[in-house]
UniProtKB/TrEMBL annotation:
This is Acetylglutamate kinase. Pathway: Amino-acid biosynthesis; L-arginine biosynthesis; N(2)-acetyl-L-ornithine from L-glutamate: step 2/4. Its EC number is 2.7.2.8. One of its GO terms (cellular component) is cytoplasm. The keyword Ribonucleoprotein does not apply. NCBIfam families: argB (TIGR00761). The record marks 33, 251 as: Transition state stabilizer. One of its GO terms (molecular function) is acetylglutamate kinase activity.
Length: 310
């Protein structure tokens, strides 16, 4: 373990470096989209739970939104149902929706249990609880060869998020752990992209940060090198020249929407790195890509500069 290689002085310096971040982020809301390998590797899951418990215990207010892609696919395979995707979206018929709810429900309970055993206080939520994620059916816009909008089943887009339930839980010092399932006015459940839910919640809760955990180090330049910090205009240029493309686009889109509508910053971090959350939030170097508005500093050069330019 790295800890065994550090002397007492090194450990003390690490803790001292975290203090101004803990002070500045006290009582602030962080919406964390939990996904990738961090959600399937047992050691990383346990580490994530400990990180969440620590953030809560020092006075921060994490809100977790999780997906469940690998778990859903695994359950469908056991059921003998082939997974089908259209433009990166899971086609969700009645049987698939049942698998989505079962797999994400089980994962939700596991995350909640791990956080509680680590000393935190977590409560699992389905977006249908109290109708707090209200959704409508999503139709994909037609592309060449399509005769009209593409129906992908019970896949939803968000109409409204009622944050009252989450705010109530936070007043009692609970960490909400949210399944990305929405519900229509007619009671129909909808499978919703977890990045979309996280971004929408970050805006609705006036969060300090939106953090997207992935299987990549962050936003990479054309040479595959991590870009530590970018502004909204920088990201627009990177998309326009093709540097950002493919599977990163939906995550970037969620991050951009959040920052443009009031979230102070969005972060894309590598969930495969142990203690990724603590490294990004409580150290001056961070480990991923930070996205800020055009009016703010381009990246965190050091703790003092950051806190004196807010």
């Amino acid at each position: 373990m790295i800890s065994a290689l550090l002397g007492a002085g090194d450990k003390a310096n690490i803790l001292a470096e975290a203090l101004p971040y803990i002070q500045s982020f006290h009582n602030k809301i962080f919406v964390i989209k939990y996904g990738g390998n961090a959600m399937t590797d047992e050691a990383l899951k346990a580490g994530f739970a400990r990180d969440i418990a620590l953030l809560q215990l020092v006075g921060m207010k994490p809100v977790i939104v999780h997906g469940g892609g690998p778990q859903i696919s695994g359950l469908l395979e056991k059921m003998g149902v082939k997974s089908e995707f259209r433009r990166g979206m899971r086609v969700t018929d009645a049987q698939t929706l049942e698998a989505v709810e079962m797999a994400t429900g089980k994962l939700n309970q596991e995350i909640v249990g791990l956080i509680n055993r680590s000393g935190g206080k977590a409560v699992g939520l389905n977006g249908q609880d109290g109708y707090f994620i209200q959704a409508r059916k999503m139709l994909l816009p037609p592309e060449p060869g399509d005769t009209g909008p593409v129906d992908i089943g019970a896949v939803g887009e968000i109409e409204k998020v009622d944050t009252e339930l989450i705010s109530l839980l936070q007043t009692r010092n609970f960490v909400p752990v949210i399944m990305p399932i929405g519900v229509g006015l007619d009671g129909q459940a909808y499978n919703i992209n977890a990045d979309l839910v996280a971004g929408t919640l970050a805006r609705a809760l006036d969060a300090e940060k939106l953090i997207l955990m992935t299987n990549t180090p962050g936003v990479l330049d054309r040479n595959g090198k991590l870009i530590a910090g970018v502004t909204l205009s920088d990201v627009d240029a990177l998309i326009a020249d093709g540097t950002i493309s493919g599977g990163m686009l939906p995550k970037i889109g969620s991050a951009l929407d959040a920052v443009r509508t009031g979230v102070k910053s969005a972060h894309i971090i590598d969930g495969r790195v142990p203690n990724a959350l603590l490294l990004e939030l409580l150290t001056s170097e961070g480990i991923g890509t930070l996205i800020r508005g055009d009016g703010g500093p381009h990246f965190l050069t050091d703790t003092q500069r950051y806190f004196h330019t807010e």
